[in-house]
Amino acid sequence: MDQPNKQILELFIKGDPKATDEIYRYYRIPIIRFAVSILKDEIEAENIFHEVFLKMISRRDKINPSMNFSSYIITAVKNEVFDYFNRVKKDQQLKEQFWNNIQKHSVDDQVEKEAHLEQLEKLVGQLSPKRKRVLEMNIFEKKSYQEIANELAISINTVKNQLIKAKALIRQEMDNSLSK
Fold first, then answer.
1. Domains of the chain (ranges, CATH numbers)
2. What whole-number distance in Å separates Cα of residue 102 and Cα of residue 43?
3. Where is the signal peptide (predicted)?
4. Rounded CA separation 57/148 (Å)
5. What is the dihedral of CA 67, 73, 75, 76, to 10 degrees?
6. pTM for the full predicted model
7. d(Cα 60, Cα 58) in Å, to the nearest integer?
8. Residue 77 and residue 71: Cα distance in Å, rounded?
9. Interatomic CA distance for residues 130 and 141, integer angstroms
10. pLDDT for residue 122
């Protein structure tokens, strides 16, 4: 989905339901991911996104369509996160819940990273031997395109093409598995 353009933003400001839906769908996932990266709590991140979005709807007439809306919404989310942290600081039960979420999230992150690394190793193993060798020389041995070309007796363009294809294949497969 493309970033909402100025016309969509202007329609959102005027209260158009389709524009509101488009902006909501465009920003929901990245903003929630951003909030989760700070809060380590998906439910609270979702709550914060909804709170911010509702505030934006109620104050839409104050939005300047010529300003960077992405920066505006990120700033609003940061402010809401700071408010949440202030509430956590004052409420012992919220504080305990927050620390439990951080501990659980760090374990979950480690498991997820290990799974991604295993998948990455599997994908690299599935590359053709030539493509795999070029990728390993570039990434692990930190060799330049010219060094790889000289060592393998191939052209620099072949090195570039092999790297582009290898990285594109890996990126596509990793993206496919993350979206499942």
1. 1-90 (1.10.1740.10), 95-180 (1.10.10.10)
2. 13
3. none
4. 55
5. 120
6. 0.51
7. 6
8. 10
9. 15
10. 86
Q: Which two tokens stand for residue 75?
A: 């700033």
DSSP-assigned states of every residue in 47-70: HHHHHHHHHHHHTGGG--TTS-HH
pLDDT tens across 121-150, in order?
888 888 899 998 998 888 888 889 999 999
Instruction: Using 50 as the pLDDT threshold, list the residues of the chain that sit under it.
Output: 1
Helix ranges (DSSP H) in 65-128: 69-90, 92-126
Residue pointed to by tokens 């902006």:
23
The CA–CA distances, whole Å, from 27 to 1, 21, 33 equal 10, 10, 10
Rounded distance between C-alpha atoms, residue 172 and residue 174, angstroms: 6
Structure tokens at 104: 């659980």
